[in-house]
Design goal:
Helix content is 44%, strand content 11%. It is of the alpha+beta class. The longest helix is centred in the first third of the chain and has 30 residues, at 102-131.
């Protein structure tokens, strides 16, 4: 049984926190009369069945039938126990807990010290960048990347000088060097982990610094970027870079722009793409998609144009679809990444970006176009090869989407068959240069993938083949 002191702590914390505010950090809520409604974060659904009652400070999901108060919500959303939920909410409410085990108290204290140290480091690096001669290499790098001081300050960019400057700063402040090591800021010999690098804070959606990534300013340094290690305050796969700055613009525009790298996002904001965020160079995770889902239902994916970028795009499209998110994919002409594209466009960046967005196909359509690239419709072997690729692509999506996608793919296949009579579009010899078969006529349907309607007889889930999941994208020539 919990002690009386423990009961008092739960009561005091519950009195100081607002369930609606806590839930709204994880779920987009809409007010209906006296209650708030949203999509349940604990199971997949398309229509809101999750209700929050602000008067009773309670919640209930009519879909999965889970219910509770602010503590049970935090338990489930953070995957912790009741004591862990109490610790998190007490820290939020400013309530001091006196009945923690030594291990629990140590974890809480370490995380707090790490966060305090990261905040101090961000302030130190920013000061060095703008106020000292030692920051000149960082200022030159920003100038070469056409990043203004205003944009740099919004992201709180900084510079880590060579040597042990940060350690000396901490000694002057009478702060712990071991905390700096725990936060991944300092090596055991006292040297700065990010020495001679432009430092970019990684912040959570509330703007709290959790870690850093840093770009070298030296031409002879092989490692262009280095990153903070994971700490008690930072798990890489749970953070979206730039979300604290982009969240309002994402809501205004109705979609987020997901890029790969931090500098892509910084340059994006410099040139007016203020709804840009990044997965920080890691493959998109479920935790990151859940986080983005709190702010939007649609993502525009603008990844690097290399093979790794294309692979990451396909994984992001299918992962987002499992959470009911729409995706579109922008291809960068003559540029390897968004940073290069926007800087090359210069004063025309805004116009060229809007043209890029307007042409962006749905995520599913982009995968179809990639799988069909170079297809010669007059070659039956190539047609069957592409059909196999499309079947495999369709299988990556939730079952509820597959039939509509198969129908659209089959319709596109029939379109490809009809193209072969146009000699100016496809080389009749089957070799040499040819224009790719585009699937854009179906873009209107595919922009809302869960609403794809049936087209004729193409794309039923065939009972033959390898089983009930054998998706048909075929149809005879007569059917086409």
């Amino acid at each position: 049984m919990p002690t009386q002191a423990s009961d008092d702590a739960f009561a005091e914390v519950k009195a100081r926190v607002d369930l609606v505010k806590v839930v709204s950090e994880h779920v987009r809520l809409t007010r209906r009369n006296k209650d708030f409604w949203g999509l349940c974060p604990f199971h997949q659904e398309d229509s809101p069945s999750f209700k929050v009652n602000p008067q009773m400070q309670s919640w209930y999901c009519f879909g999965c039938e889970r219910s509770g108060d602010v503590f049970t919500f935090v338990e489930l959303i953070e995957k912790t126990d009741k004591r862990g939920a109490l610790q998190m909410l007490a820290e939020r409410a400013g309530v001091e807990l006196k009945k923690l085990s030594p291990e629990q108290r140590e974890r809480v204290d370490v995380r707090k010290r790490v966060l305090d140290m990261l905040k101090l480091a961000a302030q130190y690096y920013e000061y060095v960048l703008w106020k000292t001669p030692a920051g000149e290499p960082g200022r030159r790098l920003l100038e070469s990347r056409r990043v203004s001081e205003e944009t740099a300050r919004r992201f709180q960019l900084g510079y880590a000088p060579a040597g042990r400057g940060f350690a000396e700063y901490l000694r002057a402040k009478k702060r712990s060097l071991s905390d700096a090591q725990e936060a991944g800021l300092m090596r055991r010999d006292g040297s700065d982990f990010f020495a001679e690098r432009l430092v970019i804070p990684i912040r959570d959606e509330r703007g709290q610094t959790l870690a850093f990534t840093a770009r070298t300013v030296r031409q002879d340094e092989q490692r262009k970027y280095i990153n903070s290690p994971e700490t008690p305050a930072y798990i890489k796969g749970r953070v979206i870079f730039g979300l604290d700055l982009a969240r309002d613009e994402i809501a205004r525009r109705g979609h987020g722009v997901l890029m790969e790298g931090q500098f892509d996002v910084i340059t994006g904001h410099q040139f007016g793409v203020s709804n840009a965020v990044a997965s920080s160079g890691t493959a998109l995770t479920e935790e990151q998609v859940r986080l983005l889902k709190r702010f939007t239902d649609e993502l525009l994916l603008v990844f690097d144009s290399d093979r790794a970028g294309r692979t990451a795009m396909r994984k992001a499209v299918t992962l987002a679809s499992t959470f009911g998110m729409r995706t579109r994919v922008a291809s960068l002409p003559d540029a390897k990444d968004p940073d290069e594209f926007l800087r090359a466009a210069g004063p025309d960046a805004a116009q060229r970006w809007e043209e890029l967005v307007s042409r962006a196909p749905s995520g599913f359509e982009a995968g179809m176009e990639e799988d069909s690239a170079g297809l010669n419709p007059s070659n039956p072997n190539q047609v069957e090869l592409v059909a196999g690729r499309l079947r495999e692509w369709i299988r990556q999506f939730p079952e509820g989407l597959r039939e509509g996608y198969a129908e659209a793919a089959a319709a596109a296949r029939c379109q490809a068959r009809g193209v072969r009579s146009r000699a100016n579009q496809i080389d009749s010899s089957g070799v040499g240069a040819r224009r790719p078969v585009h699937l854009r006529p179906y873009a209107g349907e595919l922009r809302a993938p869960w609403r794809v309607r049936a087209r004729g007889r193409f794309g039923r889930l065939s009972p033959g083949g390898t089983g009930p999941d054998q998706t048909s994208v075929g149809g005879s020539a007569a059917e086409c």
